[in-house]
Amino acid sequence: MDVGLSLSLPSLTLEQVQILALKYGLSWAEGETGQTRLQPLYHLLGGHPYLVSLALYHLHHGLSLEQILATATQPSSIYSQFLREMLALVQPHPHLLVALQQVFSADRAVRLDTAAAYPLESMGLIQLEGLLARPACELYRRYFLQFLAEVSVQAVSVQAVSVQTESS
């Protein structure tokens, strides 16, 4: 039995990301110019504390901001293991994948049934505003839409093969 207090960290603000970047020794993050330079990373990660910290760690150790942004959803990215773990949690539950498709493909918050909304919120993949859901961050949106598109293409291919086999 797990016993303990579950805490949910709030998203960092851009100013907090900048302070953290400076604590990592990233002098280029100083001032208004630094904040402007951090903006794309902040937009991608939505202030997610772990993802921001992971990025800043890799920036401190020589990876460029441009590399992180360009490869964020690729299998070789600094986020790949984390994203695969999130996918592994969702993949066995088709109703959650359908809900993610709805949220991540919409240009505004969408209403989800509670059976999908609460598990996705507890995983940190979405944020709920009342009864409406929106992506927790752009990284999740991009990654899961990419995955869902690949699954969709594979399903079409399997259907095409089975139709060909049946007609032969």
List its traits.
single chain; 168 residues; mainly alpha; three-stranded antiparallel β-sheet; 6% strand; globular
In short:
This protein is mostly helical and 168 residues long. The chain has helices at 14-23, 31-45, 49-60, 65-71, 80-90, 94-105, 114-122, 138-167; strands at 110-111, 126-129, 132-135. A hairpin with a 2-residue loop joins β2 (126-129) and β3 (132-135).
Helix content: 55-70%
In total, how many beta strands?
Answer: 3
Spans of at least 5 consecutive residues with low confidence = 156-163
* Sequence of secondary-structure elements: HHHHHHEHEEH
Q: Number of helix segments?
A: 8
State the major sheet. Answer: 3 strands, antiparallel
Q: What is the spatial order of strands in the main beta sheet?
A: 1-3-2
Helix vs. strand class: mainly alpha
Detailed description of the structure:
It is a single chain. This protein is mainly alpha-helical and 168 residues long. The protein is 63% helix and 6% strand. The chain contains eight helices and three strands; from the N terminus they run ααααααβαββα. Strands 1-3-2 form a three-stranded antiparallel beta sheet. Helix 1 crosses helix 2, helix 6 (94-105) crosses helix 7 and helix 6 (94-105) crosses helix 8 (138-167). The longest helix is centred in the last third of the chain and has 30 residues, at 138-167. The chain is globular and about 45 Å long. The N and C termini lie far apart (56 Å). The model is unreliable at 156-163 (pLDDT under 50).
